[in-house]
Amino acid sequence: MIIAIEGIDGAGKNTLTRAIRERVDADMLAFPRYETSVPAQLVQEALHGRMGDLTDSAYAMATLFALDRHGAREQLAPYVDSDRIILLDRYVASNAAYSVARLRDATVADWVHDLEFGRLGLPQPDLQVLLATEPETASQRAAQREAQDASRERDRYERDADLQQRTYDAYLGLAERSWAGRWLVTTSADVVLQEIAHITQGL
């Protein structure tokens, strides 16, 4: 089972993922894979202003994010139609939501879907969890995190409060139309665990 934990920067995705992992036998993978993936490293450099005007292109950035995930496709394969569980800290919906927010065009989500699930052959998740933390709260958390840890400097996306709000709204839109499968909108690990149990019983 592939479970994607989604949300804007500072929403608490890592915290929720770890809380779930403490109570179910699951592996964990976070995107972007900055430590091991060249496309992810290029994204990181771009978001911190070291790749010229690359970040000006929403399509270029989305493609790099997608190529990062494509590099993990074989790693995800064992969890498809399996009783093994992997928790993903961000997945394809993140690319869709941020692209929609950047371009202010909901139809770009379909392009992301075709790119990642179609051309790049990534497996669709069994469950997508939108961590429903209000953008203002998430922004405050991200700023506090940066102040406490110099290595957690906020990037261009994280510093843009308007972008974060639009991204959150885009996520809600994706969840409402069940984009790429089943969605759950919550802040509760218990609710997610109940849904995992429900899906498992149905497999």
Automatic annotation (TrEMBL):
GO terms for biological process: dTDP biosynthetic process; dTTP biosynthetic process; dUDP biosynthetic process. Residues 143-159 have a biased composition (Basic and acidic residues). Keywords: ATP-binding, Kinase, Nucleotide biosynthesis, Nucleotide-binding, Transferase. It is an enzyme of class 2 (transferase). GO terms for cellular component: cytosol. InterPro entries: P-loop_NTPase, Thymidylate_kin-like_dom, Thymidylate_kin_CS, Thymidylate_kinase. The keyword Ribonucleoprotein does not apply. CDD domains: TMPK. Pfam families: Thymidylate_kin. The keyword Metal-binding does not apply. Phosphorylation of dTMP to form dTDP in both de novo and salvage pathways of dTTP synthesis. PANTHER family: THYMIDYLATE KINASE, UMP-CMP KINASE 2, MITOCHONDRIAL. This is Thymidylate kinase. It comes from Corynebacterium humireducens.
